[in-house]
Predict the structure.
Amino acid sequence: MAGSRSRAALAAVVAALALHTSVAHAQQRGTDVGGQPARRQLTKMPKLVKFVEADYPPERKQAGIEAAVVLTIEIAATGEVANVAVAQSAGADFDAAAIAAAKQLVFEPAEVDHKPAPAKITFRYQFVIKEEPPLPAMPAPEATPEAPPAPPEAAQPPRPDPSTPSKPEPPVTEDVEVRGRPRERKEAFQTTIRAEQARKVAGTQGDVLKVVQNLPGVSRPPVASGQLVVWGAAPRETKILVDGVEIPALYHGSGLRSVVSSDLVAAIDLVPGAFGAEYGRGLGGLVRVETRALPRGTHGYLGVDTLDGSGLLSTEIGPRARIAIAGRQSWLDRVLTLVSAPDVGDFFPIPRYRDGQIKATVDLRRGEGVDLVVLGATDDLTRTVPSPDPASTRSETTFNGFWRAYARYTRQSEGSTAIVTPFFGRDTSELTQRFGAAPARLDVDTHRYGARASLRTRVSSHVALHTGVDVLGSSSNVRREGSLSLPPREGDIAVFGQPPGDDVAVDDFQANVVDIAPSVHADLRVGPVVLTPGARFDAYLVEGSRKTPRIGLTPSIGFSRLETALAPRASARWEVMPGYALTAAYGQYHQAPEPEELSAVFGTPDLALQRSTHVTFGQSLKITSSLSAEVVGFRKTMKDLVVRSRLTNPLLARSLTQNGEGRSYGVQFLLRQEMWSGFFGWVSYAISRSERRVEGEEDYRKFDFDQPHVLSVVASQEVGRWTFGARFRYASGNPRTPVVASTYDAQRDRYDPVFGPQGSIRIPAFWQLDLRIERVFPLGDQLRLLLFADVQNVTNRENAEEIVYSPSFRQRKTITGLPTIAVIGARLEL
Amino acid sequence: MKTRAPLAFFAAVVPLVHGAACRPDFDERESFVDRTMVIGVRIEPAEAKPGEAITASLLVASPEGVVASPATRFGFCTTPKLLTENGSVSAACQRGDVAPIGDALGTIGSVMPAEACFVFGPEVKAAELRPRDPDSTGGFFQPIRAEISGGVVAFGFARVKCNLANVSADAATAFSAQYRLNVNPTLLPLEARVNGALVALDAIPRGAEVAVRAAWRPEDAEAYVALDPSTQLVVARRETMRVSWYATAGSFTSDRTGRGEAEPETFTDNTWTAPSEPRRAHLFAVLRDARGGTAFATISVDVR
């Protein structure tokens, strides 16, 4: 016991030294998870005052096996250990021993602005068999906030004779993360995934943001589609925000990759509905991507796989600044050219995509800093399907791109936090198709600018007030040509592959939309209940260059109007007992029309705001420190939705109307295991219904993306340097309108379908099992190589992806999805 | 029958690419006549003004050859398709909601409805109504519904000459001065060759690959003018020509062939593979110009 005490005392010294070395990094962390600032001044590090030695697992000791377990320890403001989780596993027995010991540690609490505050530190608990007494204290490795833990070998001391008595090595701190307060759930219902976990999910090819498609409340997207359908809302109704700045899409056009480098992502929040007053302009949900704080030192990676190549390099520029540059380039089309016929690209849509990011962080003064970020991504696709029949020759050229530049200024002072994020950027979308002689074209070029500013003030120990303003301006040039029925809209009755109408119209106009939205909400803590009332007011200035279709050379007449909307929001969370909480939320939401919908030819310049109301109710239960369960019921009602005119003789400049109504409702379940003994995973299931109708109709029809049942099971297990992952998905098929007969069009020489009731059949249900295996190879102290294989559809199930018909519509079959495939890749990490 | 195996190759290197998915094969060739089917509707004249006389004629094929004088019920569509409808005619007209023309044996005469330019054209009775959009040739069409026995429904489209809408006076004047009404093309007799030599139609070798040529007169691919909706200028165009091929036995290489606007040739070729057993076969060709003009040709061959 005397020996143990001496080792414990020594360990305390080691821990304190280690913590001390990390102070600077704790101060310089860019952001905490969830997009909340963490630039308060850390005035005191947590100090280990009671160390407890872990028991060496006997079997491992006898076998001479050494290991290191990396732990994440949350320390309460009282100094007690509040939670322990395994960040890097060494096996169940080592993990259990380390956790058991760590739970008995006692600290002096950290202090932020000289006040006790919760903190989170990362320990490496090394199990080393050695003969000698405990090693003298050694300096901790340089901390790299949010960087992946160094491989166990990196800090491992020389190994003595394994036959000698054993003892655990004192813990080594790798990282310290201090929060001014425990992380609160900013939204009543949201799912947050840390990037470290997300990249290990099978079927995502290591792409952190693709995990969103497996979160509760998200419908399965069609194959080769990056659409996000959240709680029954249309894809365009869910907003994507990176550090609070809206971007047009989370994924490249085919859904193959996300548009932001995974190594620049710290966490992803999915808020499927009922979000707070800070956000708006969307009837559906939110996906918030938080970029990671840049680490000290020089880091980076180079990665290649079947789809693309990518890389990232980050480094310090003096003591106050850091910068990271990342980029990605697809080469799928080149790979195909090498292994297949040269003209394969004419028949198969091969996307070509690229993206890049630059992030710089500058620490200005105490509690004050700024992040400068530039994001950009492009997709392009060109293909031609030739035919001896001139009317059957099809060609398609698409280009989609965007870039954003923003500065995120954060200032923290006593009791308040201010964030200002001005930004500007450009979205470009070009679509040119030709079906025989019939052209189809839609080009939208939009310049975007704006700013998001928020001020959080702690009024008292029970009240915090949030005020903010959210400004977004867009100036769009729109050119459209072709049939009104292309591109299709939700609710159109058509079958897959049906050519568009051959009617041709043209419009070319400009549209400007500026929205200024102040918001306010408060966090009121009343005993075990936290109430968050709030409101948001949006004032939209909508302008257009053409109120009526062009007539000859007559100068166009523009329009300008103001649309306003007041959106009350509220949520409540009642901590019924420790670990069990009830939550409810309510909110009203609205969304402005898309620029192309303001066309006097194809749309309606007078479109107003679409509106929706969200109501949710849920309960959550923390079963263990790392295992939780959640049940959420939701209902969304929508009105004033933009739909095509149902009139036999549409009015001039009224091709679209706002007669649409919708509703979606359901219940979702989530059982989630956070990292524990190298394992994490979740099971999510949603049963829901989403429906639409036009005002005056008695019955609702099924929403085009309605999926009543969606089940996702995700699991990942680390075993030493290996990681094994699995993902199982089940989803109902989307509704389709059946073809019951056909008629012959003798001019175009084709058959036209005669439809049955709209949305009365479904694509057969989908299920698929994916597996992932990953192996890390340390290459000295600074490098490591990661190899992975992501095997999709391991059962080779022929999932139906779409319903198709023979040319005369006498036969009906399905297009099936991908067979068993493996994406193999490698990453060299610095 | 699915083509999963070949496409799996692409899938192996193109994960998640839409084209890598497995598209089923249908055992249905559009050029194979396996039932009684309407394969063409000819409107004479090919373009007419409201109130002018028109004649509609069907070409009906069956495995036994041309169906002569098929009992047909004709009617004019009276409602345009909705903006939500992607087909050629409204769902109401598909169901039979028409203004009856009458019953006839494959051919019927009538008058282009006076309302055609208002219902299916660019003319509006009130300024607040949206004019219809033309097709890519600048044309508007009155659909004619034809139903033959067995519930087979086909639509012919009578091109209707209407006034231009939403154009400048200069463009309207130029258009009126230069535009010539469409005329139906003439399909010359089909030619069949084996190894470059003309063959007798009553002695086609079994399994032979027969080159079949459909030709038309040079003036059939007419030059015409159309209003370019983006520039609001009158531009010169030339008709594309398409031939749809049908056979009651054997198979054509392509279901359709044709010539684009820039191609001066006055013929198009296809290859018909004769059946492997002796029998009589019927070949059909339907020529269509870009503005809706139509011509038919049929030959019967004996395979020996």
Remarks:
- Chain B is about 10% helix and 40% strand.
- The two ends of chain B are 32 Å apart (CA to CA).
- The longest strand of chain B covers residues 279-289.
